[in-house]
Structure formats: structure tokens, C-alpha cells
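example protein:
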Amino acid sequence: MEYYNYIKSLHLIFVITWFAGLFYIVRLFVYHAEAKDKSEPEQSILIKQYQLMQYRLWYIITWPSAILASIFAFWLLLIMPQWLQQDWMIVKLGFVVLLYLYHWKCHQIFNQLQNNKVNNSSNFFRLWNEGATLILFAVVFLVILKSAINWIYGVIGIFVFSVVIMLGFKFYKKIRERNT
């Protein structure tokens, strides 16, 4: 059983670093989009720096973490195949698919920004960042509660929390607009 705990620990470590990468990459997208509104030479300097930071984060931390988290997850499922018979695990795997779709969309945005195409506003990216948060909360509740039904209460709480975040976001935006 000790062997199982090492694999589980490594899976958890890489899930944490994967989410850290996803949270930070979108924050860099926000800064990148805002840099487009700056005047030269500040704009060029900032964009070049953000592109470098995004590249390093994406290929040195985020992608490797996603791959390693998945490898250790598959390993855990090989050790404990009975999990695939449990409803909470099926729902969790559904959220993992959503996480990979989110990751892939972030990859598309990353490629656009690396090619100097800013197709979204900083406000869009601030909201986009909440997608990973919702998935994280849902997965944590599922894993801890191990119930395909009770996690819904946690997710409802997250949606309420998201509404509070949205209201806070709108309030912060008004303050920023007033101060500029």
C-alpha cells in the first residue's frame, strides 16, 4: 500500500502544478492583452517579456505537469481498477475531460498571443480564469466526498461563489475606470 501512496502523492503534486500553470498562464494573458493598450516602446517591451514568460510557463511547467498528472492517474487506475465502477470516479473523469478541453483552449490562446494576435480582452481573460477554478472545486469535492450526488452541493456553492467573484470583478472594474 505504501507504493500506492507514492503514486497518489506524485499525482497530486502534478495536479497542483498543472492548476498553478493554468491559473498563471491566464493571468499572463490578462497582462498581455492590457499591454496592447500601452504606447511604444512600453508595448513592445512588455509583450516580448510576456511572450517569453508564457512560453516558459507553458512548456516547462504546465504541459509537463498535465502529462505527468495523467500518467500517475492512469497508474492509480491500474492499481485500483474498481474505481472505474464507482459513479463519483466517472463524474470526476468527465471533469478531467473538461479540464483538458480548457487546457487545449488555453493552448490555442497561447499560440495566438505568441503570434501577436490578441483576439480577446483582458476582461474576457479574467472571466476565463474562473473556468479552471470551477473544475478544481468540483473535482476536489468529488474526490473528498466520493459521491456522485453530494458534490453537487459543493458545485452549487462554487456557482454562488462565482457570482460573488463576478460582482467583485464588476466592482473592481468600476474602481479602476474611475481611477484612470
